[in-house]
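Lay summary. Proteins are chains of building blocks that fold into shapes, and those shapes determine what they do. In this project we predict the shape from the chain. Here is one chain we studied, written as its sequence of building blocks.
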Amino acid sequence: MKRLLLAALIGTAALVSFSSCKKEYVTNYLPGVTYVTPVPSSGWERDKNNSFNFVHTLKFDELDAKYFDYGHVGVAITFNYDASQGHATSYTNIPAEYIGNYSYTVDYEVGYVIIYASYVGTPPANGTPPPPPNMYAKVTLTDADNGGN
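And here is the predicted shape, written in a compact code that computers can read:
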């Protein structure tokens, strides 16, 4: 009986040790990518129908159909970017209201990020507001998997 019990014990131990489980991890790491680009005051176009509204179009070849359909585009602006250091001390996500004399919104389409600025300050004496000041825009493209839609 002891031999039979010992044989069963050895057999079970051998079976357990030779049939180990292999864990498989599926890592679906889809990183985002960020671009910082200047938006000069001279680059704004005034709306022909409303002189208090401005538009600035950024060409972004990286914003392809996949990012457009399944990813996310985030835009933030800063007025204190130090190009020599390569960073800013703060950013403001847009849409944003009342940054100085302007409110900002953003749209995007394949290949382009379009930033809008509306003058919301006290109307200037001459009736025509200046374009927004020089700034930098940080555009972040975040990739994602198709959720089945």
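What the prediction tells us: The two ends are 64 Å apart (CA to CA).
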